[in-house]
Amino acid sequence: MSRARPEPVGGQRLDLPGEDALRAFVVGRRWFGSKSREVAHVRMLETIPLTDGPLVLGLLEVEFAEGDTDLYQLPIGVREEGSWTGEVISAGDGTVTYDAMTDPELVRALVRLMGDDADVETAHGTAEFRALAPGLGEVGAVRPMGAEQSNSSVVLDERLVLKAYRRPGRGPNPELEILRFLTARGFPHIATLRGWYAHTGPALDATLGIVQDFLGGATDGWDLALADLGEDPGRFVARARALGEVTGRMHTALGSGHDDPAFAPEASAPETLGLLAAELDAEIRRVFAALPGDRDDLAPVRGRGEAVRERLAQLTRDGSAGPVIRHHGDYHLGQVMHTAGGDWVVLDFEGEPARTLAERRRKRSPLRDVAGMLRSFAYAAAAGRLLHGAEAPAGWEDEVRAAYLDGYLEHTDERLLPPGRGAVARLLSVFELEKAVYELRYELDNRPDWVPIPVAGIARLLEPDEHEVEG
Ligand SMILES: Nc1ncnc2c1ncn2[C@@H]1O[C@H](COP(=O)(O)OP(=O)(O)O)[C@@H](O)[C@H]1O
Ligand SMILES: O=P(O)(O)O[C@H]1O[C@H](CO)[C@@H](O[C@H]2O[C@H](CO)[C@@H](O)[C@H](O)[C@H]2O)[C@H](O)[C@H]1O
Which residues pair with 152 in a beta bridge? Predict the structure, then answer.
């Protein structure tokens, strides 16, 4: 259904927030992703009245002191002063503006536009709203998801989730792309995609949000691993095997799109492994050069930067980076859910939020995802001790790893992996090292008490024989 730009609120001029109010609001949000950077400007690129009522889709440009910019989405509610009791962005001339994602009535209006397959003309193109059969239905109850998030998700009638991308990026969105691809292939271990909305146009092309099924009663993999560790550690070993199977099936499905250039598996270029090694080598040097001198918990790796670089050189001396495919890109226990029916479902195909959309859409070895999950098992084993003072049973992490890898290798199309178990083990170790070095920097910056986890991971990877995959 195509519609012209609706008239703003009763045909009157909209009192939308000015730059100062926008800036104060945006930089204070949990979803604002650049808190350590100096913001030069926050300006509205587009304000799209979506209904004749009080819903305006704002697309903002945040400009940093260095001159680069980020695109943000801010759906805005506009109401008479006194008729809105929540937090406001701005107030004046008898109206207030606020974040529409916190207003159930306006969330319902957004979903209704998707259900209507509406196209709304904008100054720079079209705001497109789409529902996938069998449609979205009329929505009643709306509540915030309540998860720590870089986006904003709301639960609709406990049956659907609307996730609005706060920093959408320009160009095709990997999550929408992958969910559509997997849905078309009948891959069952995802929350089914039901709708989406986007802005299209030559100057502004961005996916703004998706609607998916809500997994009621499901537990995320991280909480489940910690709960099993406390109650029945062996239970998680069996669950890890099932998770490996689902991961293998996911990669097999993602590597099956031979006639779609965005998904067709490719052989990596001969120089790929060398380039990966060079990038990681530089990162190891940077991280080790900047290690603080006053932390005892760094002892297992302190002064061993050269040894880590040598281990990397040894792992990447020959062989190749193997075939490359589209993959999850940010795979860890917090991204998978265990449903009430005992099945694993994979969420959040956006990739690492700090990377550009182009980087996130790049094909890489699927073993990068596998390594991310193996690191997550190490985190779970250690978190029991760090958070609750409860040790994981001896050998638990090794058993979980082995079970996961068994399940994975049994259900992955082997043409998507480097040939031979030795080559698989080596490439996995390279990606685990890459992730552990990243985590060392991340934990030093964010959670200093967790530094021993990546430290142990790096120390472990210095032991050559421990990580060979059986077989
Ligand atoms: N479809 C869903 N059903 C149930 N819970 C969900 C669903 N999607 C997300 N969640 C919960 O919300 C959290 C954040 O979702 P995610 O898609 O990873 O958002 P973000 O990309 O902003 O981190 C998940 O870890 C999960 O706990
Ligand atoms: O989820 P984000 O994309 O924000 O990822 C960042 O934070 C993660 C922590 O929440 C961090 O993940 C690390 O800790 C997890 C446990 O809290 C663990 O399961 C992961 O394996 C481990 O990497 C992630 O590295 C960071 O980018």
Answer: 164
